[in-house]
Queue: 3 jobs
Job 1
Amino acid sequence: MLDSHPERLVQSFLMGSKQSRSGQRRLELLSKIAALGSLSAAAKACGMSYKGAWQAMEAMNLAAEQPLVVAQKGGVGGGGMILTPAGDALLGAYQLFSDKMQHWMRELDTLSPGVLSQLDIMRKISMKTSARNLFHGTVIKIVHGAVNCEVILAVGHDMQVVAQITPESLERLDLKINSDAYALIKASWVLLSEDIAGKFKTSARNEFCGEILTIEVGAVNSDVTIDIGSAQKMSAIITNKSVESLGLVVGERCCALIKASHVLLAIAD
């Protein structure tokens, strides 16, 4: 059923496209399949693995609720694939929309120079999550492992967040060097300690020290917010007894410790 507010679909497409381009990458894959007649050739042309391309194709077919791509005997390059009428219709609509959007964006930038730069800010503030701590950054390093991969995001001036995710998650999120991503950390996953900067080392890959801004005391737990620099804040939920034993006071310093496995990564899809 067609959305009764199609402008919302356009807005979502615009505000998500710069972040991950996952939707565009899937549609570009569809275009390459139509042109090359082969999933493996299309995957190579899009810089994707065959497994990733196959998963993207399955996701498109599932989302469309009808086949967009089907196998055809006699194809070259590892299995022939062709678009169904539904796939042709979707690809045609995407190409028309892309052409019109590019024309509109050029016209908009001419009418109001600099307005397009505000789309990035609108995209960031539109994201909703239950995690209290949300950091937007750029992937600067990826260490591949058989069981887990380590992803490092630059989230501010001289500030990094280290996350540990599975290889499957890395491929599903399509993370690469210079990809934009969000690091999400639940406040209950943040451990607090006295200011340990330079005193001793911990096993936590993420360590942020700064000044305590607020302490909101509840019946059992307290919500502690710390200024960790680079215009970033970190919130932690700890017991009232821990606040007392650590001697936490507004205006004093403390450190937030987060295991890399407790950092969730997200992209705008």
Job 2
Amino acid sequence: MSRSVLVTGGNRGIGRAVAETFRDEGDRVAITYRTEDPGIPGVLAVRCDVTDSEQVDAAFDEVEARHGAVEVLVANAGVTADNLLADMSDEQFRHVYETNVAGTFYVARRAGTAPMPDGGRIIAISSAIAPYGAYGQANYASSKAGQIGLVKSLMRELAPRGITVNAVLPGPVQTDMYDELSPEAKAGHLRSIPLGRCGQPEEIAGVVAFLASSKAAFINGVALPVDGGALGHLI
């Protein structure tokens, strides 16, 4: 049966792959984007900055009017602003937290307090570095760890309504964000992955689709690493 699915930050990378996967399964899919409509065929695109709760509410209003109440929410919108502790500005730290943590909270709050039906799904895209940390990413790693705490708390609140809340923790994935890394950084990532390669956005999307399916109805509050074995042993 076709469901109403919303993917935040669905204009590129993992978010786009997730949106296209749900679309190909026959769902009614909407994405949010912040700067440029990606024009994905068969997908409703809504401009929204997830750090602004009023824009989040307006985006949900539009999706609900076009596709019905959101039944699957994928909180994917996220940013990085890497720097060493001594050089990281207040703005770099604040912007990452406002997007990755507050943005996830705003969309989850709207979905969880709207008429999301029994069997609804909320899935946050965190990161495999969340429990481990990363050099020069104090803001990003801690914000992604914050998402996991948020997921585990919301799971307890929403479970009585039959709504599951989970997190997916991707390792290095071949996206445009990854392409911006230095050759040295990429080589280091590859050395850390037992499978010897980066993941593909479609591989992350497949895990998200599974968590949203009826087959995963008894999976709740998990932080699932999808990283080729790089960091999952630490969780």
Job 3
Amino acid sequence: MLDQNSELIDWENPRDFKEKYTDEETGKTETYTQSKNRVASDAVFKINASKQKLSEKDIKNLRKLDMEIIKNSVFARHGYSFKKQTYRNFFEQTDWYIPVSNNVDSELSPMEKENVALLNRFIKYAEDKYDSFGR
């Protein structure tokens, strides 16, 4: 599993989020854009897509980044060498990740393949939603 003592932040790809501000005196609302880094929730430490069969219920309320990490942890466990810096940063923090291959698809179990397919379906439509504190 990933190290629970580390906060998983996507430093490489900040996202722009629309924020609203309402002036209490005038009641006027303004919209502005703020750039924030995506932060994973604790769900990435609780869900292991290599050892448990996932259902829609397990992942439907997760952040997009959570689902991306859970999905890519399947590949990381098989030694996939990530090209994206974000995922390399996450998994290089662990003592079990050893990148050895550019293609590990043939090493995935049938359950892992089903979980990856399910996660891909949800990731496609997921959004990153964070409040003004980056949570």
